[in-house]
Write a sequence for this structure.
C-alpha cells in the first residue's frame, strides 16, 4: 500500500481531489434549492465592488461620453427611454385589451386589472466563464427579488432570476442553453417551448411539423411555465423549417437586442392577452352535418319527430301541401276538391320536368310514373269539373280501393303524434261508383 | 535527437524551484483573473472570450515544481470561478484541477519557456478545458449543451496569443530565490 501511494502519489492526490469535488457537486445537485454559503459569501463580497466599478465606469467613461459626445443628450435620452419603456408596456397592455373585446369592456377590465408589478434593475456584471449567459443585476432579496422571477424589458423577455442574493441577483439570459420558457405564436396560437442555444437566436421546440408558423411572426410568452406572465413579447421568427418530428423554429429575441443594460424584474406578474389575435384560416374546413346524420342519434336510432327515411320526408311534404291548401286528410267528403299534388317538391327538393315531384323511392311517385296511373293526379287536379262528381251526385260513397297497388301498399312508417294516413293522402280522386 | 529537440526537452528556466511568486501574488493574480471575467466584458464585450483564470492556471502549472501544487492551485481558481457562476460549485474546479495536473506533468518534458511550446500548450489546454467542461455538463448535470468546435478553436488561438505576453508579464513578477 505504501509502495503504491509513494509510486503513484500524484495520481492518488489527483483522484482524491477530483472525487471530493464530484461529491461536492453531487451534494449541490441534490439540494439545489439551497444556495451554498460559499456562493453567498463570494457574491456578497464581489457585488459591492461591481457596483463601485460600475459607478466608476458610469461617472468616468460615461462622463467623457456625455461631455464630449452627447453632452446633455445622454441623460435626457435615458429619461426618455425610461418613459418610452413604460409607455410601451402600457401601450402593449391597452392594445392587447382593446383587440380582444369592445372598448367599454376593455376599459372595465383595464380598471379592474393592473399591469405587472415590477422593479427596475441595472446589469452590473457578467457571470464567469467564456460562454457565460448569466448576468448580475443590482437588485437582490432585500428589494423583494426571489429566485424564479421573470426579467423583462419593454421590448421583450430577458431571462429569469436563478439566484437572489441580498444585494444582487443572478439572471440567466434566454440565450443560455439551459433556459426554457413557454411561448405561443401570435397568429395561429401555436404553443411551444423556447430554448436558449448559447448564441443570439433561440429555438422554439415541440411544435409539430403540421403546425403553421410564418417567418416574421411574433412569439409571446404563454404563461404556461408559471414564471413569465402571458403576453410578453419574445421575438420574431427568423426560420421555421420542418424537422424530424418537430419544427425547428428559430426566434430572434427582442428583449436582448443590442445588449442588456436596464431590466425590469417582475415581482407580481399579470397575465395579458397576446395582441393581434386574428386566427389564420386553417387548412381544413368543417363540412355541414350529413343529411341523414341530423336525423339520428349517435346510436343510430331515429329521433322522435325527426325525418329518418324518404317515406317520412315524402309524408311530410304531402302534409305540408295539405296545410298549405287548408286540407285535412281523411275529412274530405267524397267528391270534394282534393289537394293539388301536381307541384309538390321531391324528397330532395327537386321538381320533376313535368312539374310533379321526382321522388323515385316514393310509392306515389312510382305509380305516377306509369302511363295509366298518371291520369289519377290529373283527375285529382281537375277535380269535380272532370270527374263524375260533376254529375251532381251527392250520394255518399265509400272511397274506392286504389287502382294501383304501389300507391297504397307500401305504407310508410307513421311517426308518433301524426294521425294522418299517408295512403289516403296519395289516393286518387274517387271515381263515381256508378261507373 | 536534434539540437532543437534537446533544447525543447531541457530543464526549463521557468520551472526552476528557485523562481517563486510571492504568496500575495499567488492569491491576488487568480482573483484578478476571475474578477476580470466579471468586470472586463462590461467595458469591452469583445474580451468575454478571454479565459484568464485558465491561463493563470496553466502558467502556474508550467512554473511550479510538481503536479500536486498545480492541481491544488487549479482547484482553488476553479472553485473561485464556480462561486461566481450559476453552475454547481466544482465544475470549473474539476476541469482546472485536471488542467493544472496535466500542465505540470507536461512541463517536466518540454521547454515551456519556448514561445511556440507555450502557444501550443495554451491552445491545447484551452480546448481541453472547454471540451471537458462540456463533457461534465452533459454527464453530471444532464445539460444538452452544444459544443461549437470551430468557435472553440478560434477562441483557443486567441487565448494562446494572449498567453504569450501574459506569461512574460507573470514571469517578471516572480522573485529569484
Amino acid at each position: 500500500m505504501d509502495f503504491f501511494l509513494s509510486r503513484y502519489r500524484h495520481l492518488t492526490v489527483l483522484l482524491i481531489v477530483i472525487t471530493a469535488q464530484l461529491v461536492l457537486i453531487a451534494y449541490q445537485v441534490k439540494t439545489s434549492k439551497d444556495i451554498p454559503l460559499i456562493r453567498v459569501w463570494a457574491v456578497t463580497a464581489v457585488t459591492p465592488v461591481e457596483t463601485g466599478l460600475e459607478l466608476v465606469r458610469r461617472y468616468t467613461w460615461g462622463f467623457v461620453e456625455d461631455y464630449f459626445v452627447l453632452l446633455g443628450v445622454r441623460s435626457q435620452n435615458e429619461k426618455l427611454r425610461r418613459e418610452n419603456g413604460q409607455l410601451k408596456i402600457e401601450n402593449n397592455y391597452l392594445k392587447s385589451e382593446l383587440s380582444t373585446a369592445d372598448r367599454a369592456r376593455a376599459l372595465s377590465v383595464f380598471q379592474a386589472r393592473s399591469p405587472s408589478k415590477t422593479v427596475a434593475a441595472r446589469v452590473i456584471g457578467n457571470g464567469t466563464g467564456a460562454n457565460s449567459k448569466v448576468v448580475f443585476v443590482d437588485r437582490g432579496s432585500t428589494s423583494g427579488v426571489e429566485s424564479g422571477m421573470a426579467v423583462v424589458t419593454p421590448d421583450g423577455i430577458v431571462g429569469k432570476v436563478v439566484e437572489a442574493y441580498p444585494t444582487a441577483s443572478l439572471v440567466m439570459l434566454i440565450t443560455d442553453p439551459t433556459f426554457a420558457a413557454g411561448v405561443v405564436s401570435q397568429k395561429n396560437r401555436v404553443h411551444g417551448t423556447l430554448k436558449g442555444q448559447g448564441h443570439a437566436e433561440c429555438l422554439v421546440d415541440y411544435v409539430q411539423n403540421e403546425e403553421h408558423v410564418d417567418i416574421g411572426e411574433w412569439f409571446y410568452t404563454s404563461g404556461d411555465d408559471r414564471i413569465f406572465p402571458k403576453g410578453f413579447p419574445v421575438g420574431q421568427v427568423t426560420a421555421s423549417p420542418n424537422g424530424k418530428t418537430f419544427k425547428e423554429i428559430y426566434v430572434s429575441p427582442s428583449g436582448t437586442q443590442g445588449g442588456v443594460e436596464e431590466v425590469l424584474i417582475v415581482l407580481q406578474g399579470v397575465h395579458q392577452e397576446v395582441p393581434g389575435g386574428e386566427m389564420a384560416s386553417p387548412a381544413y374546413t368543417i363540412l355541414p352535418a350529413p343529411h341523414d346524420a341530423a336525423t339520428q342519434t349517435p346510436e343510430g336510432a331515429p329521433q322522435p319527430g325527426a325525418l329518418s327515411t324518404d317515406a317520412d320526408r315524402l309524408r311530410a311534404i304531402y302534409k305540408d301541401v295539405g296545410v298549405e291548401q287548408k286540407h285535412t286528410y281523411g275529412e274530405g267528403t267524397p267528391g270534394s276538391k282534393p289537394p293539388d299534388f301536381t307541384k309538390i317538391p321531391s324528397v330532395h327538393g327537386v321538381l320533376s320536368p313535368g312539374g310533379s315531384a321526382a321522388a323515385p323511392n316514393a310509392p306515389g311517385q312510382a305509380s305516377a310514373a306509369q302511363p295509366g296511373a298518371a291520369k289519377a293526379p290529373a283527375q285529382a287536379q281537375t277535380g269535380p269539373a272532370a270527374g263524375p262528381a260533376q254529375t251532381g251526385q251527392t250520394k255518399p260513397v265509400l272511397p274506392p280501393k286504389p287502382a294501383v297497388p304501389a300507391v297504397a301498399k307500401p305504407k310508410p312508417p307513421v311517426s308518433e303524434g301524426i294521425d294522418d294516413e299517408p295512403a289516403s293522402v296519395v289516393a286518387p280522386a274517387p271515381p263515381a261508383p256508378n261507373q | 535527437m536534434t539540437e532543437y529537440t534537446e533544447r525543447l526537452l531541457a530543464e526549463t528556466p521557468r520551472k526552476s524551484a528557485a523562481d517563486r511568486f510571492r504568496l500575495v501574488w499567488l492569491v491576488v493574480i487568480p482573483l484578478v483573473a476571475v474578477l476580470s471575467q466579471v468586470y472586463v466584458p462590461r467595458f469591452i464585450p469583445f474580451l468575454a472570450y478571454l479565459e484568464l483564470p485558465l491561463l493563470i492556471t496553466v502558467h502556474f502549472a508550467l512554473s511550479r515544481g510538481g503536479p500536486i501544487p498545480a492541481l491544488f492551485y487549479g482547484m482553488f481558481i476553479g472553485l473561485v470561478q464556480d462561486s461566481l457562476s450559476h453552475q454547481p460549485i466544482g465544475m470549473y474546479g474539476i476541469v482546472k484541477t485536471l488542467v493544472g495536473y496535466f500542465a505540470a506533468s507536461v512541463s517536466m518534458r518540454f521547454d515551456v519557456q519556448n514561445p511556440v511550446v507555450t502557444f501550443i500548450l495554451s491552445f491545447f489546454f484551452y480546448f481541453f478545458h472547454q471540451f471537458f467542461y462540456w463533457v461534465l455538463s452533459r454527464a453530471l448535470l444532464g445539460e444538452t449543451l452544444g459544443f461549437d468546435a470551430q468557435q472553440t478553436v478560434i477562441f483557443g488561438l486567441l487565448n494562446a496569443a494572449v498567453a504569450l505576453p501574459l506569461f512574460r508579464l507573470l514571469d517578471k513578477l516572480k522573485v529569484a530565490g
Q: What stands out?
A: The radius of gyration of chain A is 42 Å. Confidence is low (pLDDT under 50) at residues 106-114, 278-286, 293-305, 350-435 of chain A. Chain A touches chain B through 47 residues (CB under 8 Å). DSSP finds ten helices and twelve strands in chain A.
